[in-house]
Specification:
Number of domains: 1
Largest sheet: 3 strands, antiparallel
Order of helices and strands: EEEHHH
Distance between the termini: 28 Å
Strand content: 15-25%
Length: 114
């Protein structure tokens, strides 16, 4: 498991720490519902159930939600690395690297409710 950077770009995460896991909902035995829990099932995060989505979309949505803390941690590590490396390798506006940096910054801000 990669080590965490010493501090995030700005603000602090305000969500239940991961890992988050998905489980088949007992009420939806036919596969049309998933429960997302944290801390080995001790903390309920959400229930993902069908509102017209296919089973594939429903499973994909629940996978994406369950991966959120991991993706957040990866973006924090990316931003930390990019900010420490910025003096040696500055981002030129309009480059793919600059776009990735700005997308990561926006995603982290949204996740923190900023």
């Amino acid at each position: 498991m990669p080590s965490k950077p010493s501090k995030p770009e700005s603000g602090a995460a305000r969500f239940t720490p991961g890992p988050w896991e998905r489980y088949q909902s007992a009420e939806h035995a036919a596969g049309w519902g998933w429960i997302i829990n944290a801390r080995n099932g001790e903390d309920f995060i959400c229930e993902v159930s069908s509102n017209g989505q296919t089973m594939v979309e429903l499973a994909g949505n629940s996978n994406l939600i369950a991966a959120a803390p991991d993706m957040y941690e990866a973006l924090v590590a990316y931003m930390f690395t990019e900010q420490t490396d910025a003096g040696r390798n500055p981002h030129r506006e309009g480059t793919n690297k600059h776009r990735a940096f700005e997308l990561a910054r926006a995603a982290l801000a949204r996740a923190r409710g900023e």
